[in-house]
Amino acid sequence: MASQSIEIKNLYKIFGPHGERYVDMVANGMTKTELNEKHSHVLGLQDINIHMPAGQIQVVMGLSGSGKSTLIRHINRLIDPTAGEVLYDGVDVCKMKKGALRQFRRHKTAMVFQKFALLPHRTVMENTVFGLEIQGVPAGECERRATRWLDRVGLTGFEDNYPNQLSGGMQQRVGLARALTNDADILLMDEAFSALDPLIRMDMQTVLLDIQKELQKTIVFITHDLDEALRLGDRIAILRDGAVVQQGTGQEIVLNPADEYISSFVKEVNRGRVVKVKTIMTPVASDAGSELISVNENVLLEKAAKTMTDSNQQNALVVDASGNTVGQLDIHDVIAAMVTPVEHEGAEEEASAEAA
Amino acid sequence: MSWYNEFPHMPIDDLRALKKGIDAGFKGFTREYGETIELIFEPVKQFMILAEDFMLDTPWPIILLLISGLVWLGSRNWKIVLGTVITLLLIGFFDMWEDTMKTVAMTFVATLLAIVIGIPIGILMSRSTLVERLVTPILDVMQTMPAFVYLIPVVMLLGIGKVPGLISVIIYAIPPIIRLTNLGIRLVDKDVLEAGDAFGASYWQRLRQIQMPLALPTIMAGINQTIMMALSMVVVASMIGVQGLGQPVLKAIANQYFTLGIFNGLAIVGIAIIFDRASQAYGKRLQKHSEVVHG
């Protein structure tokens, strides 16, 4: 069955013995600090509403303590919510009975963890088949399926090693292979690449994107790194203090940050790698010659700029997937859109002046 | 001011009546149920006899080979095997072979039963904090109560012989395996357990595939302690008729036979070292996956 979307509705999580008593108060505007001081309960999540699209990567981003790891654990109910619903294929995960939940976890979800969480006493192969073994798949079949995924993540030849003998990057490849071997609809990735070196992280992101092209699973990816979020996320939700402050595509968030908090996040972002050509194209002028080069509307600015400068063109036509011309592009607009807005630099100068 | 100089205690007559009452009660219980209890322990007795007969009836070279072979299987270490052979040859040479075999049989059966009883209790303790709170004080009592004291009711119930001896050895030796099973399971990495849950592991799958294997090194340490304590209890248990190396020691104490005492004492030390080294080396081999760490 193809992957479905995940619908999170009015989800609240309040940690403490009587969390349910305070849901209404929080809904009526009680803050995290107030709740902690007056009732010594900790607000984990408040009023989360996210539609996670089927077969795409939903990134949930936030700093530590923002509740992002708590949120992802509600999708396979490793954490029980205080109020709200998590719907998958029309079924509320939060209302499932024990047995149904176990079946849901076995067949519909697979998870990759920040600290890998491999079984140290098992070899790479034995770790990879773990999910299937839990499902009760016969050993031969397990190994056949695991071999394929170990190969896909580049671990052929390491089947008999123990996790301790591998580097962090390779251990997480095992974690990824273990999750993929499960062949579940939903892939939950909890800061899966955060513990890795930057270069290896890039590498793993590439592996994930390649695999996703082929599989089109519903992936929920947690990260605290905006660059990672923008690179991987078809949609991004930004969490702060347990609440969603903004959600949308990467481009929407970079171009229209909802508040100061998000602006401060996105100011360092390389826009050339986020903004698409169609965002800044202008209507086709009547005199546009057909000798102009054409670029796809979904190409990122950086790539368009390179294509245009390589062929020494000032202008280019923008075409959609089926080849129809939908607009045109001026190299000046492209460059202007790629650099960070001027007001922002001014703000930075002010800040450095204040610091001095 | 007499209450100030001397602790005001219960009137002597009342105290005597109390002790007599409890004794009478227990004696009544013994008379009533002694035979039933003896019957319950009959299989254990048969097993014990079987083990002892095997150790005594098998010709000594075969036993020597068997023990050395087991030590090799456990430790994969020639030095330990060599030490085992030399120790056993010396024991035989000084005419303590038979007593040693009886002691080994007793230790083997006691350890086996301690494992069979202790590990499930340890697992239950690790599952529920309530059980842990209930069992811990009982273990404390078992470990601190002088062994001679609980010999009394055991002997009253079952008389003198192998089974009461075995029971007292197990009472004395079982706490470490219970405690360390509990500890080992509680120390299992929470992240790995969460991964098990996330993949939909059932309670048994979690226990069998994650908790037990990861707790095994700690449990092995518990088994090792249990073996050591069972061996050290052998002398005390000889007071209630357990045969083996303890009896000559007891005789040596009573008659001030210094050499007899030290020979048999050293024999106990010898087999203790063999068991210890072999079981520790085995425990270490179980952890071979954690040895090679990526630099």
UniProtKB/TrEMBL annotation, chain A:
EC class name: translocase
GO terms (BP aspect): amino acid transport; glycine betaine transport; response to osmotic stress
Broad class of where this protein is predominantly found: membrane
Pfam families, per database record: ABC_tran, CBS
Domain CBS, first and last residues per copy: 281-348
GO cellular component: plasma membrane
SUPFAM superfamilies xrefs: CBS-domain pair, P-loop containing nucleoside triphosphate hydrolases
Top-level taxon of origin: Bacteria
Subcellular location: Cell inner membrane
Lineage start: Bacteria, Pseudomonadati, Pseudomonadota, Gammaproteobacteria, Thiotrichales
Protein name: Quaternary amine transport ATP-binding protein
Domain ABC transporter, first and last residues per copy: 6-266
Subunit structure: The complex is probably composed of two ATP-binding proteins, two transmembrane proteins and a solute-binding protein.
Reactions the enzyme catalyzes: a quaternary ammonium(out) + ATP + H2O = a quaternary ammonium(in) + ADP + phosphate + H(+)
Topological type in the membrane: Peripheral membrane protein
EC number: 7.6.2.9
InterPro entries referenced in this protein's UniProt entry, alphabetically: AAA+_ATPase, ABC_osmolyte_uptake_ATP-bind, ABC_transporter-like_ATP-bd, ABC_transporter-like_CS, CBS_dom, CBS_dom_sf, Gly-betaine_transp_ATP-bd, P-loop_NTPase
Keywords per UniProt: Amino-acid transport, ATP-binding, CBS domain, Cell inner membrane, Cell membrane, Membrane, Nucleotide-binding, Transport
PROSITE patterns: ABC_TRANSPORTER_1 (PS00211), ABC_TRANSPORTER_2 (PS50893), CBS (PS51371)
Family designation: Belongs to the ABC transporter superfamily.
Organism: Leucothrix pacifica
GO molecular function: ABC-type quaternary ammonium compound transporting activity; ATP binding; ATP hydrolysis activity
UniProtKB/TrEMBL annotation, chain B:
Domain of life of the source: Bacteria
GO biological process: choline transport; glycine betaine transport
Main location: membrane
Keywords: Cell membrane, Membrane, Transmembrane, Transmembrane helix, Transport
Subcellular location: Cell membrane
Domain ABC transmembrane type-1: 100-279
InterPro entries assigned to the protein according to its UniProt record, in alphabetical order: MetI-like (IPR000515), MetI-like_sf (IPR035906)
Membrane topology: Multi-pass membrane protein
Transmembrane segments: 54-74, 80-97, 104-127, 147-174, 214-237, 257-275
Gene Ontology MF term list: amine transmembrane transporter activity; carnitine transmembrane transporter activity
GO terms under cellular component: ATP-binding cassette (ABC) transporter complex
PROSITE patterns: ABC_TM1 (PS50928)
PANTHER family for this protein: GLYCINE BETAINE/PROLINE BETAINE TRANSPORT SYSTEM PERMEASE PROTEIN PROW, GLYCINE BETAINE_PROLINE BETAINE TRANSPORT SYSTEM PERMEASE PROTEIN PROW
Family: Belongs to the binding-protein-dependent transport system permease family.
The protein's name in its UniProt record: ABC transporter permease
Organism (species): Leucothrix pacifica
